[in-house]
Amino acid sequence: MAYNPRYANGNARRKIRARLKAEQRDCWICRAFGRPARIDYDLPARHPMSFEVDELIPVSKGGSPVDYDNVAAAHRCCNGWRGNKSVEEVLRIARGVRKHVDSLPQPFEDW
After folding, report:
1. What integer is the mean pLDDT of 82-111?
2. What end-to-end distance do the CA atoms of the chain give, in Å?
3. Which residue(s) pair with 51 in the sheet?
4. Of 2, 19, 42, 96, which residue is least crowded by CB atoms under 10 Å?
5. What own/partner pairs with CB < 8 Å and gap ≥ 24 does 18-23 have?
């Protein structure tokens, strides 16, 4: 089995996960896209909208999975979509999507 740094120091990783969960943070990826970002921390682990720890600098690019400054809360599906994209790439995509959505005609209030 391949070496996975997320599990190499399980105690430190559990502490990071517990701290993020206690803070009840929103999904940083949804927030970037302007979507509802609330995470239901009571969902089972494999649920697409459940909480996951996301490494801002991906482990595959040298980021630490146990450095609090390198982690954020994300939905499982958002984290899966992100893969190992950089934060800058995610924000660039989000700006493009938001610019496109913001340029669409808005419905009248009385529709």
Report:
1. 75
2. 58
3. 75
4. 2
5. 19/68, 20/51, 20/53, 20/71, 20/72, 20/73, 21/51, 21/73, 23/73
